[in-house]
Every structure is written in structure tokens, then in C-alpha cells.
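Class, carefully examine what follows:
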Amino acid sequence: MIMKLKKISQNKVQSRLIDSRGFSLIEMIIVVSIIAVIAGIISSVYITSIKSQEQVLNKAKSETDIRTALYIITKDIRGASNVSSADTDYFKFKSDINNDSIIEDIEYILSLSNGRYVLYKKINGGNNIFILDYITNINIFSYFATSAGSELAVPLSIQDLNSFKLIKISFDINREPANPARATILSTFVSLRNRL
């Protein structure tokens, strides 16, 4: 009896295995196509999120770089006592920038380097000190007699060099030149303390 039951159950298993068919070629193609579509959607979402994250990081780095440059330049310019040259892309003046009672000659120079504009600082005619790059608008400095509404023509005349009291520093940078919409623009006004 036990033997008979074993035999019957083996026969049922074998008959099921023989009766069961595999997937047809069309079913396999449909499944592979569905998986490929799902994988394509997932990969495009992933690539889009990576690009978006990169753009956000570039924007944040640009803003940080501009704020740092504005801080450095503002600190130097506030104590300017004697301005010898002023243009939209060049500014030269005397100031005690490190509070050691020694007046230094300071120059801010915008120059073209490796296909992009870079702002450098020179102290007493020494080596170029890097300040900021990826600059797209070369009109960095604007000069005003008394208020932001009275902009002076550049380069400044000798009379204007000795009388202007306010400078606007404006940076427009873009780490992705192919896409102008990605530009970061920040500016500030600096009042010269040593001017009456």
C-alpha cells in the first residue's frame, strides 16, 4: 500500500513536470522589454538627479566664492586713502590692509587666463594673488560721487579719483558658460572711510 502510494505520487509529479510548459519566445520578449523600459526610466531619473545635484553644488560654490571675494575686496577698499587709478576692471589704491601702520599699494586686476576672466590682487607690485575666476561680466567696479544714483564715467578723471566716495563691486560668474541661465550675480556697495 505504501509502495503504491509512492508510485502514484511519483507519477503525478512526473506528469505535472511533463505537462508544464516553459515560457514562449513572445512572453520572454515582452518581459525583457518591460524590464528594459523600467531600467531606462530608473536610469534617466538617476542621471537627472545627479545633474541637478551638480548644478546646485556649482551654484553654492559660486555664491561662496563671490561672497569671499566681496569680503576681501570690501575690507581692503574701506581703508583706501589715495586712489591712483580706477576703471571697471582695474582699481589701484593705497591702504593699510593688515593694520600694521604700513601703507601698502593695492591693485585689483581683471585678466584673461585660459579663456576665462580671473580677478587678481597685487600687494606692493608683488605676485598675483588669486581672488575669483569664471567671471563673465568685466564691469566689476562702478564709482559714485555721493549716492548710488550718481555713477561717474570711467576711467575716472584726476578730479573724480580724489572725490568719489562710493564703489559698487559686482560679480557675475558662471561655471557653465554654455548655459547662461546658470550665472550667479552678487554685488555690494563700499563706502570709503578715509574720504570726507
